[in-house]
Write a structure and sequence with these properties.
CATH topology: Alpha-Beta Plaits
Number of helices: 4
Distance between the termini: 32 Å
Largest sheet: 4 strands, antiparallel
Low-confidence stretches: none
Radius of gyration: 18 Å
Strand content: 25-35%
Number of domains: 1
Helix content: 25-40%
CATH class: Alpha Beta
Strand order of the largest sheet: 2-3-1-4
Number of strands: 4
Structural class: alpha+beta
Shape: elongated
Length: 107
């Protein structure tokens, strides 16, 4: 499972309409809204990273949304992503060695 935190900005006069629209989207929850600025903090759940990105693109196209960008995300086990990492690199990470991380980032 992938979880995104997304900042959404709408027209102030459309805030409640946008909140209703967002709450109807699969996997989306509105957690905070500010009527003075039209800003909202939402979360989105998705099965894969591709689904997560597609969901964000869908949100950006909704009526009265001026801005929608991912602020943070957590990604669970998405086997498609791990296929690009060799078993040797994964084993190196498990052993506490640098693995695929550049050495200068370990300082």
């Amino acid at each position: 499972m992938n979880l995104s935190t997304i900042l959404v900005i709408s027209k102030k006069e459309s805030l409640h309409e946008v909140i209703d629209c967002l709450n109807k989207q699969t996997g989306v929850d509105v957690h905070h809204s500010d009527p003075d600025t039209g800003r909202m903090i939402i979360t989105q759940e998705a099965e894969t990273i591709d689904d997560e990105v597609a969901g964000l693109k869908r949100l950006k196209k909704l009526p009265n949304i001026i801005y929608a960008e991912m602020v943070s995300h957590y990604f669970g086990e998405d086997k498609k992503n791990y296929a690009a990492v060799s078993q040797q690199d994964l084993d190196a990470l498990d052993n506490g060695t640098s693995g695929p991380v550049p050495e200068y980032l370990n300082d």
